[in-house]
């Protein structure tokens, strides 16, 4: 059980970092929120991939990263911060 949780944290961190890298503009999000949004993005992306019958692991990762990017935009909207221009 601990190994599963640890893998979600590590996977969430990787996906969150990649999402922040690909999302335009500066994100004043801390590392804990990066992991949380990455893990939520991974869960949402995995769910979406399963609904679409996607079996390619690389494509599942892409969907998870895109879901995390969407969550970053939503997080900015909820916090009321305007995205900065590049």
TrEMBL record:
| Location of this chain's protein in the cell | Cell membrane
Q: Has keyword Ion transport?
A: no
> Topology relative to the membrane, per the entry?
Multi-pass membrane protein
Naming one, the record's GO cellular component terms include:
plasma membrane
Name the residues that span the membrane. 6-22, 29-52, 58-78
Any idea which UniProt keywords this protein has? Cell membrane, Membrane, Transmembrane, Transmembrane helix
What family classification does the UniProt entry report for this protein? Belongs to the UPF0410 family.
What is this protein's name? Putative membrane protein
């Amino acid at each position: 059980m601990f190994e599963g949780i640890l893998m979600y944290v590590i996977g969430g961190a990787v996906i969150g970092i990649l999402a922040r890298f690909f999302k335009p503009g500066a994100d004043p999000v801390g590392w804990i929120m990066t992991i949380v949004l990455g893990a939520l993005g991974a869960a949402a992306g995995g769910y979406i991939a399963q609904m679409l019958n996607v079996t390619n692991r690389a494509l599942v990762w892409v969907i998870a990263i895109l879901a995390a990017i969407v969550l970053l935009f939503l997080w900015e909207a909820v916090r009321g911060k305007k995205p900065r221009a590049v």
